[in-house]
Amino acid sequence: MKKIVVAGAGGFIGGHLVRKLKDLGNDVRGVDKKPMNQWYQVHEDVDNLVLDLTIKENCYTALNGYHQVFNLAADMGGMGFIENHKAECMLSVLINTHLLMAAKDLGIQRFFYASSACVYNGDKQKETDNPGLKESDAYPAQAEDGYGWEKLFSERMCRHFREDYGINTRVARFHNVYGPHGTWDGGREKAPAAMCRKVLEAELYGKDEINIWGDGEQTRSFMYITDCVEGILKIMYSDIIEPLNLGSSEMVSINELVDIVEKIGDIKLKRTYDLDAPKGVRGRNSDNTLILELMNWEPKLPLATGMKETYDWIRTQMVTGGVK
């Protein structure tokens, strides 16, 4: 049994990670700044704390008495959020900085940081036919403005706290995680959940069209939440000190993503395109060469399978008025 803190436990990935760590028999403390009635999952037998981790003293409170940390805490969302809240996204740097300072002073043994594919050089993401972003493509640095730069800086903080103070830091660069028990409405949702909601609005409310941000040809890869949690644990307890991609290599266009959801909903909609909406880079995919070489593993759940699970969960939320 390990004594583990999950920062960002009230969020989508954090909630799933807490569940897995508890199932493995660990003593878990979950920390998030949101009121607990806004957490996506609240688990029994977990020491749940409501703390704003941008405040240094709260980081010491959160880590005191525990031995390992998974830092998934950040102000973030889909492209519509991060393009319009750059300062807010960058303030998340306080969370990782203060958690690392507390980790050093309190003798934390291992520290995981959740980074993002938004750290990658934008010049390598201008074509839809993206061959996959290698870990080395983060430099020379030209990260996503705001959110991406905060992630890249925080990666470097982890590196230097490892080099200077001996903390076993591990970093994973997430590529578009999706699944149940996450945001599906309200402005912070990502493309998979947004497409499920829009198709469900047609199924449930009789709408006959779907609005797509951009021209629909922009490409991405999407990783299901169970693969994400498995990858987090593999990376955390490995000997690999360099940042690793954690994402599916199954790249699709946004139009193809809509095709998948329409098939799940057994419906065909008229498509309209908002060319002025936030749409991010033109093409992004995960090159999994390094994680396969070092760990003989990569995310494997097919997109269509994960989208069916996500669609069914969001449908239940929409019908029952569940949390968004």
Keywords:
alpha/beta, 17% strand, UDP-galactose 4-epimerase, domain 1, 324 residues, two-stranded parallel ribbon
Radius of gyration: 19 Å
- Across the major sheet, the strand order is 3-2-1-4-5-6-11
For the sheet with most strands, the description reads:
7 strands, parallel
Helix % is 25-40%
Overall strand count: 13
SSE string: EHEEHEHHHEHEEHEEEHEEHEHH
Which regions are unreliable across 5 or more consecutive residues at pLDDT < 50? none
How far apart lie the N and C ends? 33 Å
Give the second-level CATH assignment, the architecture of the largest domain.
3-Layer(aba) Sandwich
Figure out the total of helices: 11
CATH level 1 class label of the largest domain? Alpha Beta
- The figure for the number of domains is 2
Q: Structural class of the secondary elements? A: alpha/beta
Please name the fourth-level CATH homologous superfamily of the largest domain: NAD(P)-binding Rossmann-like Domain
* Residue-averaged pLDDT: 95
Task: Break the fold down into its secondary structure elements and pairings.
Blueprint: E1 3-7, H1 12-23, E2 27-32, E3 47-50, H2 56-63, E4 68-71, H3 79-82, H4 86-90, H5 93-106, E5 110-116, H6 147-165, E6 168-174, E7 177-178, H7 191-205, E8 209-213, E9 219-221, E10 223-224, H8 225-236, E11 244-246, E12 251-253, H9 254-265, E13 270-274, H10 289-295, H11 303-320
Parallel strand pairs: 1-2, 1-4, 2-3, 4-5, 5-6, 6-11, 7-10, 8-13
Antiparallel strand pairs: 9-12
Helix pairs in contact: 1-8, 2-5, 5-6, 7-9, 7-11, 9-11
